[in-house]
């Protein structure tokens, strides 16, 4: 089915009814009937003639799966002039550098410099102000536009960021992730959380964004590679630059986060609840017999 055909069906109640009927047909054909568990999804082994990349090749090409521990410890490998600077001085220098030239590389260096400090535990007031100033610089990066030929525009900013804490009420060590202009997702894998000793150790967080953002969300996942149970923490509705505080993430995901997605929302997105189309019961029935899957909130299509 082509994408445009699927979109047309989703906007038409009759089409959605037909889609539900088709799903039931598929379930009856490939499952074992109502009341019996459906077949589990399994990995398909490659055919003999197929050539697939090795795990080492996959890791080498996964730009989000960077081993952060070494980078946090040796940020001077990218900028030798920082070799003799302590973490606070390095952050000051990198923040100044990013303010003058807000390239993607400089943004990542500031982010790493922030994490070198906040991953050590609660900060004193002067250091906390230094971190806030660095975050403010990252949040002021201008977004490229077609009118500027892909260069940064002075008309608006475009960033989403989050700080995730070890304990409830924003205590203990923390991890900062910045989602700069131009992309839908920013991914954080378990290696990054292990680097700051926060894998399965997150209990509170905040989400913030620049004023020109439409909105966005942080999604905390139970396992690496964005699988397992999850919880969504959105920006403040209608006011994304009003910091959204979560003093406790809830028992469902507390101390269970191993990967994170930061997702940008766009002004041409359409999101609607399947409950409004009378399909929740059908979906609940479809997933009720599938092992390890449960329906919590309303299914939303974006």
Q: How would the global form be characterised? A: globular
Helix content: 25-40%
Main β-sheet description = 4 strands, antiparallel
| Whole-number count of domains | 2
CATH superfamily of the largest domain: Crystallins
Task: Specify the CATH architecture of the largest domain.
Answer: Sandwich
pLDDT averaged over residues:
82
> What percentage of the residues does DSSP assign to strands (E)?
15-25%
End-to-end C-alpha gap? 18 Å
Give the total of beta strands: 12
**Widest beta sheet: strand line-up:** 4-3-6-9
Quaternary structure annotation: single chain
- The low-confidence parts are none
In a few lines, what is going on in this structure?
32% of the residues lie in helices and 22% in strands. By secondary structure, the protein is an alpha+beta fold.
What do you see in this structure?
- This protein starts with a helix and ends with a strand.
- The strands form four sheets. A four-stranded antiparallel sheet has the order 4-3-6-9. It has a four-stranded antiparallel sheet with strand order 5-10-7-8. A two-stranded antiparallel sheet has the order 1-2.
- The protein is globular and about 65 Å long.
- Helices cover 32% and strands 22% of the residues.
- The longest helix has 18 residues, at 13-30.
- It folds into two domains: 1-33; 66-143 and 155-287, Gamma-B Crystallin, domain 1 (Sandwich).
- It contains nine helices and twelve strands.
- By secondary structure, it is an alpha+beta fold.
- Helix 6 packs antiparallel against helix 7 (125-139).
């Amino acid at each position: 089915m082509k994408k445009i055909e699927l979109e047309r069906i989703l906007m038409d109640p009759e089409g959605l009814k037909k889609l539900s009927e088709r799903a039931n047909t598929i379930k009856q054909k490939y499952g074992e009937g109502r009341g019996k568990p459906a077949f589990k999804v399994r990995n398909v082994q490659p055919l003999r003639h197929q050539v697939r990349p090795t795990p080492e090749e996959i890791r080498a090409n996964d730009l989000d799966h960077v081993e952060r521990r070494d980078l946090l410890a040796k940020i001077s490998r990218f900028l030798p002039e920082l070799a003799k600077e302590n973490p606070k001085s390095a952050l000051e220098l990198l923040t100044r550098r990013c303010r003058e030239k807000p390239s993607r590389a400089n943004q990542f260096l500031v982010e790493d410099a922030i994490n070198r400090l906040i991953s050590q535990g609660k900060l004193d007031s002067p250091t906390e102000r230094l971190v806030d100033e660095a975050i403010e610089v990252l949040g002021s990066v201008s977004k490229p536009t077609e009118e500027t030929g892909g260069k940064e525009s002075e008309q608006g900013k475009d960033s989403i960021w989050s700080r995730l804490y070890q304990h409830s009420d924003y205590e203990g060590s923390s991890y900062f992730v910045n989602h700069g202009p131009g992309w839908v997702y920013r991914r954080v894998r378990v290696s990054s959380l292990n680097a700051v000793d926060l894998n399965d150790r997150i209990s509170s967080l905040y989400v913030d964004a620049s004023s020109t953002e439409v909105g966005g969300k942080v999604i905390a996942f139970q396992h690496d590679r964005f699988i397992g149970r999850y919880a969504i923490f959105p920006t403040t509705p209608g006011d994304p630059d009003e910091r959204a505080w979560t003093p406790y993430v809830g028992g469902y995901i507390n101390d269970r986060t191993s990967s994170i997605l930061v997702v940008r929302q766009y002004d041409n997105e359409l999101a609607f609840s399947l409950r409004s189309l009378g399909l929740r019961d059908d979906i609940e029935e479809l997933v009720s017999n599938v092992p390890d899957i449960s329906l919590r909130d309303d299914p939303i299509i974006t």
